[in-house]
Design goal:
This protein is of the alpha/beta class. The chain has one domain: 3-Layer(aba) Sandwich (Rossmann fold), CATH 3.40.50. 32% of the residues lie in helices and 27% in strands. The protein has 7 helices and 10 strands. The strands form 2 sheets. The protein has a 6-stranded mixed β-sheet with strand order 6-7-8-3-9-10, with helices on both faces. Helix 6 links the parallel strand 7 and strand 8. The longest helix is centred in the last third of the chain and has 18 residues.
Length: 226
């Protein structure tokens, strides 16, 4: 379980998050929605330990991530998290294949089963023709698919995604969301995504609306599970 307790964050004296508290249970599929500037991406970065809050804390299975050493935080990310940034964060000097293998540098094991699973994802997300290309040779949508595959490849227990379909066409958006829903159901993977899209949010079971740095409302999504 992930617990977010009374998170406050400001930039240049302006509060972006104003005491946000939230619990995300293992195996949930959660969407965080809100207008631009509502604090969605900031909350996601704090959740993943990439950004420190001014006040409050985040606990993963009872451990406060703000109290972890850099090594412990890196181990947590390596062992449990798959993170897709809005800016993709692909390494520009590595081709797509090497970007996909990058987690092995961080200690992930490339077992026979993992290789087989990665290959299945490569085919499902139509990345095979891109494997030898470099990020600057890809479209935004292609970079996004590579970033999603990299996050999925080593079967993390928690997927954290910032606008995972923002650069995709409608066909690929549906393909990606159905993949995420399947992984959530079959692997019991916790999925936490930020999105502006009601159609994308409809795949989740729990929708959280942020407005002006606070949770405006939360609701279960009866339409989930297409």
């Amino acid at each position: 379980m992930i617990k977010i307790q009374d998170i406050v964050k400001s930039y240049n004296g302006e509060r972006v998050l104003r005491g946000v508290s939230l619990e995300i249970r293992d195996g949930e599929f959660v969407s965080i929605m809100g207008e631009s500037g509502s604090g969605k991406s900031t909350l996601l970065s704090i959740l993943g330990g990439f950004l420190a809050p001014d006040e409050g804390k985040v606990l993963w299975d009872g451990k406060e991530i703000g109290a972890l050493s850099e090594g412990e935080l890196s181990a947590l990310r390596c062992d449990k998290m798959g993170f897709v940034f809005q800016s993709y964060k692909l390494i520009p000097t590595l081709n797509v294949n090497d970007n996909l293998l990058l987690p092995t540098v961080l200690g992930k094991k490339l077992s026979k089963e993992t290789r087989k699973y990665v290959q299945s994802l490569v085919e499902e997300l139509e990345i095979s023709p891109l494997l030898k290309k470099f990020p600057h040779q890809l479209s935004g949508g292609q970079c996004q698919r590579v970033a999603i595959l990299r996050a999925l490849a080593y079967s993390p227990s928690v997927l954290i995604l910032d606008e995972p379909t923002g650069a995709l066409d409608s066909r690929m958006e549906k393909k990606v969301m159905e993949l995420l829903l399947r992984i959530n159901r079959e692997k019991k993977t916790t999925v936490i995504q930020v999105t502006h899209s009601q159609a994308v949010a409809s795949y989740s079971k729990h929708i959280i609306h942020l407005a002006d740095g606070v949770i405006e409302r939360e609701k279960g999504n009866g339409a989930a599970g297409k």
